[in-house]
Amino acid sequence: MGYLVLGLVLFLGVHSVRIVADGWRTQTRARLGEMPWKGLYSLVSAVGLAFIVWGYGLARQQPVVLWVPPIGMRHAAALLTLIAFVLLAATYVPRNALQARLHHPMVLGVKVWALAHLLSNGNLADVLLFGSFLLWAALSFRAARQRDRAQGTVYAAGSAAGTAAAVVVGAVAWAGFAFWGHAWLIGVAPLGR
């Protein structure tokens, strides 16, 4: 469990700098330069992610069961992860109403993804992993909205075509991951086969 915790501290820690020390982040980025800052940020993120994957894999070998979720939670998780994939797609598809309305769909997607996995998994490692991401996403979304208000950020209006594209791209990506990718990468077939 220690590797999982270390990974979460590194990965979510570097992703929390803007939440807890935005001024320091801005000054350090200016002092180091854009590319060195991004390189350092990416390196710490990658190391953290590697520890998360490794630690979670080790923790799954000797699970500590806190509760057994009802079967119906799998269906709720499937629906919620579909929403999370659509929100993730809305981050990258230009001029869609989801981004225009929600402003930070990626962070909301992480929040929904983490909640889905908390509902459908009851092991200690799951609670630690997905609970940490849920807490981070909630704090990150709040901080991002506060920055938007302080800076007077205005988001471009979405179009029907952009919104439809975000929904289709998200749904197709979700289907590919739910039916094949999750079992291949994680070793669990969430929708069964």
UniProtKB/TrEMBL annotation:
Transmembrane spans: 40-59, 71-93, 113-141, 153-180
Record membrane topology: Multi-pass membrane protein
Presence of keyword Glycoprotein: no
Every NnrU domain range: 4-190
Family matches, as Pfam families: NnrU
The keyword Ubl conjugation belongs to this UniProt entry's keyword annotation: no
Alphabetic keyword roster: Membrane, Transmembrane, Transmembrane helix
Compartment(s) of residence: Membrane
Superkingdom: Bacteria
UniProt main location, coarse: membrane
InterPro entries: NnrU_dom
Protein name as annotated: NnrU family protein
Source species: Acidovorax benzenivorans
